[in-house]
Amino acid sequence: MARYTGPKHRLARRFGVNILDKTSTTLARRLNIPPGMHGAKRKRQLSEFGQQLKEKQKAKAVYGILEKQFKRLVDSVRKKRGDTGEMLISLLETRLDSLVYRFGFAKTRFQARQLVSHGHIRVNDKKVNIPSYQVLENDIISLSSKMQKNPVVVAQLKEQINLLAFLKRMGASGKLERIPKREDVEVPFNTQVIIEYYSR
Questions:
Q1: pLDDT tens track for 20-50
Q2: 27, part of any domain
Q3: Contact in structure between 122 and 144 (CB atoms under 8 Å)
């Protein structure tokens, strides 16, 4: 399945959650109305399977992940002992593109994925161009010297961000201080329902 490239507002309204990584008053007002001419009238009770499917699709939309990658992540946590929901969030949040976004090097996850894919990100001073690369505890992520001179990126670095508790930023670089826990990140989907979907 190809990555969704259509209007982000439409996708956000389909799932009833803001996946745009930014505040939008227009979207906030229409978020609970599904897209389409009869969106306001189309609300109906979902079956258990329908709810599981919706939560899975929400998570994939938020992190911009395709089905094959997402299933691989879920399968990997299901084989481990412990809180599978927390482990899933940890894996999603320690993807390189997620951390580039969380450090404020990019305004959206889409932009963060582009920065990584185009070779503008370093992990421990080595170029990594794989957005799904799993960052390890104490790894240092930094922008390439070229990007540090880019006017758009320079302006972005000056913006105030709410840095999550497991991260530390030092100018144009950042460190994953520890693996994130469930309480560190607010996610708009139910991880347990997603695990149940893949356990069928």
A1: 665 555 555 665 666 666 555 656 677 888 8
A2: yes
A3: yes
Residues pairing with 123 in the sheet: 126, 141
Residue 161, in any domain of the structure: yes
Q: Work out how many domains the chain is built from and give that number.
A: 3
Show Cβ contacts of residue 41 under 8 Å, excluding neighbours closer than 6 positions.
none
**How many angstroms separate the CA atoms of 199 and 184, rounded?**
26
SS3 at position 157? helix
- Whether 148 is in a domain gets the answer yes
Neighbours of 123 (CB within 10 A): 19
How far are the Cα atoms of 22, 111, 126, 129, 156 from residue 17, in angstroms, in the given order?
12, 19, 36, 29, 25
Residue 90: inside a domain, yes or no? Answer: no
pLDDT digits (tens, 9 = 90+) for 128-163: 999 999 999 999 999 999 999 999 999 999 998 999
**Neighbour-count burial of 114, counting CB atoms closer than 10 A to its CB (0-12 exposed, 13-18 middle, 19+ buried):** middle
